[in-house]
Amino acid sequence: MRRGLRFVPLALLVAVLLELAVFVGVGRAVGFGAAVLLVFAVSLVGLVLLRREGMRAWRGFRAAAASGQPPGPQVTDGLVGLAGALLLATPGLVSGLFGVLLLVPPLRGAARVGLRRVAERRVSSMVAGDLFGPRRVRVRRGEAQPTPPQQQQPTVVDGGRAIEGEIVEPGR
User: Fold this and answer.
1) Within a domain: residue 95?
2) Percent of the residues in the chain that have a pLDDT greater than 90, as a whole number
3) Measured CA distances, 79 to 39, 59, 111, 140 (Å)
4) DSSP string spanning 113-133?
5) Is residue 158 part of a domain?
6) What range defines the domain where residue 88 resides?
7) What are the CB-based long-range contacts (under 8 Å, 24+) for 1-4?
């Protein structure tokens, strides 16, 4: 984790330089005043969406908690929406473009799935189960593969009915 943090200043510098280059290019194409108005308009839309997405995420989390369901799907959807709105609110055309992309439903769903996978890898199976509910595991028919003695047998599908098993993560 800390190894990746050393690249944050460099990434921020590259992002600022890219934003400036795009702003200058747009300013030359449509005029400086229109480019400034475009950046302000995108940021204003981002601020409005930030409030809306925040309230939507909070309501989804509270509804899931009240109904006894795992809050993970609502939390990840809310985080993706908040990230998109925050990128829109950040002054800049490139960040605004990425913010809009995170708010488009198919891309938002893909980002939500990716965020869930990252979260499941970083936390234990028990915490991931509490957040997202039981994991769905694909099982192939056929011969069971030999497993090390410390692991239990995987789930095996027998004639269409599933036999439950336990997911054991190596190294934990």
Assistant:
1) yes
2) 35
3) 23, 13, 10, 34
4) HHHHHHHHHHS-HHHHHHHH-
5) no
6) 43-133
7) none
